[in-house]
Specification:
The protein has helices spanning about 5-15, 55-65, 95-105, 140-145, 185-195, 225, 245-250, 280-285, and strands at about 40-45, 70-75, 85-90, 110, 115, 115-120, 125-130, 150-155, 175-180, 215, 230-235, 255-265, 270-275, 300-305, 310-315, 375-380, 385-390, 410. The protein contains eight helices and 18 strands. With about 400 residues, it is of the alpha+beta class. It has four domains: about 10-30 and about 125-160 and about 170-215, 2-Layer Sandwich (Alpha-Beta Plaits); about 40-120, 2-Layer Sandwich (Alpha-Beta Plaits); about 225-320, 2-Layer Sandwich (Alpha-Beta Plaits); about 345-410, no CATH class. The radius of gyration is 31 Å and the shape is flat. Helix content is about 20%, strand content about 25%. A hairpin with a 5-residue loop joins β16 (about 375-380) and β17. The longest helix has 14 residues, at about 95-105.
Length: about 400
């Protein structure tokens, strides 16, 4: 095994984020000094609305979860002044935070007769950086990015694309990389400075007309994980929680949310929340209080809303959840049967409002002449049928004056 070669390769790309590039002088930065490092902030949820901040602090101290904590904050509603049923505890390092989570969960801490839950607060600290010169080294990239703000801890440089056999490899990298910052505040400052800066960094690819680009780096699920649960069915929503903003506040701490769809035309309201990564949906399910006497292996249960402390019920969405917004519908009378007349006025209030609705079948009244003396009619069930009109020359076989063919033929 070429140990020296592996060392050089790791220093060139650092794909596993093993080599810290954090500068000692950055420790005094206003967004770093006294602030929690990424993965050093713990979300504490399912707090009884009757509990006080002092009660929560005493419970954490009693179970030993206060060790290593450098800050604590109960989240309150600005309008009412009451807490929202969750809090954040900041720790000096990720190890202390992980230990506190384990302590709280294993001790099954209860406040006011309600068990609290703890998990790492997800933070956006990893940024995708594109438009890098393909001959730039990792050291050059690190030096250039530091000019846009302190707090850079790791930088992964993408490997160059493989050339065809016989073609010399001249690229140092793949033209992009990933920057990991000390905390979310540092990462946000970096992205803001990149957007607003007028000067170009020396590592910018001059041939790329888009210039250097930045965006939040998301974890792409593998082919196996794509089959996992990404959409949650959230039930028992009250009017406060039945908004997209409320759903994103409740579940956004677990990871990136791709879509939120609500149904408020019936009570209780419900919603579907779709995550970008199945692992994030699993985290949310893991914070549920299991339903008593539920079948073994069933996921989901009661979940405390971080918006108003109400109890929601969540479970994996059956069939992968609802159709995405803008997706064509299907089935009898659905919009995907385009190019035909809309009969929805017959559903209520229109002509013959007691009948069903839908779209007329092809060849009915959409500018085409019905064939074989047929006439579309609406049945009391809402279906559209063809009525065979009498043939003045006689019906089939010339018997019965056409009575044989004068009948409904549902399509």
């Amino acid at each position: 095994m070429d140990v020296d070669g592996e060392t050089v390769d790791r220093e060139r790309y650092d794909e596993k984020r093993e080599i810290s590039v954090f500068a000692a002088e950055d420790a005094a930065d206003e967004l770093i000094a006294g602030r929690a490092r990424r993965d050093g902030e713990v979300f504490i949820g399912s707090i009884s609305l009757e509990a006080t901040e002092d009660a929560v602090r005493r419970a954490l101290k009693a179970c030993g979860a206060e060790t290593g904590a450098v800050g604590f904050e109960m989240m309150t509603d600005r309008a009412t002044g009451k807490h929202r049923g969750y809090a954040f505890a900041r720790y000096g390092d990720p190890e202390s935070a992980a230990k506190a989570i384990e302590t709280i969960e294993s001790a099954r801490v209860e406040i006011g007769g309600q068990k609290i839950r703890a998990s790492v607060k997800p933070n956006k600290t990893r940024v995708f950086v594109g438009g890098i010169r393909k001959d730039a080294t990792r050291a050059e990239c690190v030096e250039a990015l530091r000019a846009r703000g302190a707090g850079l801890e790791f930088f992964e440089l993408a490997r160059p694309k493989k050339k065809k056999e016989g073609v010399e490899q001249t690229d140092e990298n793949g033209g992009h990389g990933w920057a990991t910052y000390y905390n979310e505040a540092c990462a946000e400052r970096f992205m803001k400075n990149m957007r607003e800066a007028e000067d170009k960094l020396p590592i910018a690819n001059e041939s790329d007309t888009r210039g250097m680009t930045t965006s939040w780096a998301t974890v792409k699920a593998s082919a196996a994980k794509v089959q996992g649960i990404r959409t949650l069915h959230v039930r028992d929503l009250n009017s406060t929680n039945a908004t997209e903003e409320a759903m994103r506040e409740c579940f956004g701490r677990f990871g990136d949310i791709e879509d939120v769809q609500l149904r408020t035309d019936r009570e209780p309201h419900f919603a579907w929340v779709t995550f970008a990564n199945p692992n994030d949906a699993e985290k949310a399910l893991g914070e549920c209080e299991p339903v008593p006497d539920a079948p073994e292996g069933r996921k989901g249960g009661s979940f405390i809303s971080s918006v108003d402390g109400a109890t929601l019920n969540i479970a994996p969405a059956k069939g992968g959840g609802p159709k995405q917004k803008g997706a064509p519908e299907s089935g009898r009378g659905g919009p995907s049967r385009g190019g035909r007349d809309d009969w929805s006025k017959y559903r209520t209030g229109g002509i013959g409002g007691k009948y069903g609705g839908g779209l007329a079948p092809r060849g009915s009244w959409s500018g085409r002449t019905p064939a074989n003396n047929t006439m579309p009619v609406i049945l009391p069930t809402g279906q559209v049928a063809y009525a065979m009109m009498p043939n003045r020359g006689g019906g089939r076989g010339g018997r019965g004056g056409g009575r044989r063919d004068n009948r409904h033929r549902p399509y």
